[in-house]
C-alpha cells in the first residue's frame, strides 16, 4: 500500500481565483469544490507545485500563503483531532469512526482534515470560515 504523504502546497490550475498555489487545504477546498472541471493537485514542496504549474503552462499565478497547517498529519496509532470545516455539524472530533465520518459521509463538498493537536484543528476550521467569509464579501461587491 502506498504511503500517504502530507500535502503542504496545492497547485490550482482551474478553480476560483486561479491560477494559484495555496499552502492551505482549507483555502484550496473552497477554491475548487463545486467548480466545474476544477484542476488542482497537492504536493509536499513548493518547487513541486511550481513545476506542476509550469508543466501546465501557467507562468503567472497568485501565491496564497495561508500558513502551515500543522507539523504533520498524525501517524497510525497516534492521537488525532479531526477538523470538520464543512459537514453536517462542523467542529473538532476525537474519533473518525463514530465521529467525523458521519458528519462528512454523503455531505456535498464536505471539508475535513486530521491534525495532531486540537489547536491545529480549530485553526483549520477558522481559516476555512475566514476564507468563505472573504469569498462571500467579494460576491457582494
Automatic annotation (TrEMBL):
Domain Ribonuclease H1 N-terminal span(s) in chain numbering: 9-52, 81-124
Annotated protein name in UniProt: Ribonuclease H1 N-terminal domain-containing protein
Organism encoding this protein: Sclerotinia borealis (strain F-4128)
Amino acid at each position: 500500500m502506498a504511503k500517504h504523504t502530507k500535502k503542504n502546497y496545492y497547485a490550482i490550475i482551474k478553480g476560483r481565483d486561479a491560477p494559484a498555489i495555496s499552502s492551505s487545504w482549507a483555502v484550496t477546498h473552497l477554491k475548487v469544490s463545486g467548480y466545474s472541471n476544477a484542476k488542482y493537485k497537492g504536493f509536499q514542496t513548493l518547487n513541486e507545485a511550481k513545476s506542476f504549474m509550469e508543466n501546465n503552462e501557467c507562468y503567472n499565478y497568485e501565491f496564497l500563503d495561508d500558513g502551515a497547517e500543522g507539523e504533520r498529519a498524525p501517524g497510525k496509532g497516534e492521537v488525532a483531532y479531526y477538523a470538520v470545516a464543512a459537514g453536517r455539524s462542523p467542529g473538532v472530533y476525537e474519533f473518525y469512526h463514530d465521529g467525523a465520518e458521519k458528519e462528512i459521509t454523503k455531505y456535498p463538498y464536505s471539508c475535513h482534515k486530521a491534525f495532531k493537536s486540537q489547536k491545529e484543528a480549530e485553526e483549520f476550521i477558522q481559516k476555512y470560515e475566514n476564507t468563505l467569509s472573504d469569498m462571500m464579501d467579494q460576491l457582494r461587491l
